[in-house]
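Board notes, transcribed. Complex of a protein with C2E.
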Amino acid sequence: AAKSSQRGSIRFYSHDLTEKALERLELRNSIQSGIRNKQFCVFFQPKINLKTNALEGAEALVRWHHPTRGLVFPDAFIPVAEELGLINEIDMLVLDEVCRCVKVWQSHLAPGSRFAVNLSAMQFTREDLVSTIEGIVQKHQCGTKFLEFEITEGVLMVHCERLTNKIKALKELGFTFALDDFGTGYSSLSYLSRYPIDVLKIDRSFVMDMLESQSSQVLVKTIVAMAQNLAMKVVAEGVEEPAQAALLKQYDVDIAQGYLFSRPISIEAFASMYCLPVPPSN
Ligand code: C2E
Ligand code: MG
Ligand code: MG
Ligand code: MG
């Protein structure tokens, strides 16, 4: 009996594997057709200047309008898209949408505003990254002074000449760089002086704990002091409560982003919230 149940479990296991493989194959097909059929779209989450309460740009966050599953959030498809080599196209279609918007918004924006696009670590293995980005910006004629890329600490850990060259080339085009989820990556800080990073985005976990945890407060204050000494700006992520915003302002944090101000919203909703023209559909 033991033998047969063992067999059964093995059979079940391999059946399970087949199902997983099938699921991935299906996901690959549906991501590819989603790209072709323009099912991926951009939501914006505003970034707010804590001193003036004015809009200082936004972060672009991708969403998938799936024909049967409805609105799908990035955590459900970004990791798979990375594994399957489909993330490049998704990131570039997000940049394309952001450029389309910035083109019509730029004359209404406060100086220093930045619209940020998340760049997957995989992008930096592409030889055509810089030329592709340059092509998109040129197509829209939107300039780069309102554009930013968000990368994670993991990207900078793999130190190599090619990475440095790509970041430098994009900086020369006028893009700024923000370090996303700052404080959750690796402990070595030497890369902060090695790369020309403009902005530190304090991870949501520190902001979340800040009101209760003395050590999170110390960490936030330390990150702000370090950023100021390195001439970097600070953005706090995941601000949900007025008391958090007040404390961050007291700590001299420049910019905040979070549900307190707004969830990520559609382009149309964002335009109407900030009295910006609705970009013509393309
Ligand atoms: P992220 O870049 O760190 O983006 C911030 C995430 O925190 C977003 O989740 C946002 O909706 C969420 N968030 C913002 N404010 C609050 C808050 O006050 N409370 C809470 N609980 N959450 C808040 P989202 O949109 O689900 O995106 C998740 C992650 O997916 C992003 O983290 C980013 O790493 C990735 N991602 C999103 N869009 C893109 C993209 O176009 N390309 C790439 N490569 N990655 C993307
Ligand atoms: Mg981000
Ligand atoms: Mg983040
Ligand atoms: Mg994140």
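The first helix runs from residue 2 to 36. Strands lie at 40-49, 55-66, 70-72, 114-118, 147-152, 176-182, 199-202, 233-236, 255-256, 265-266.
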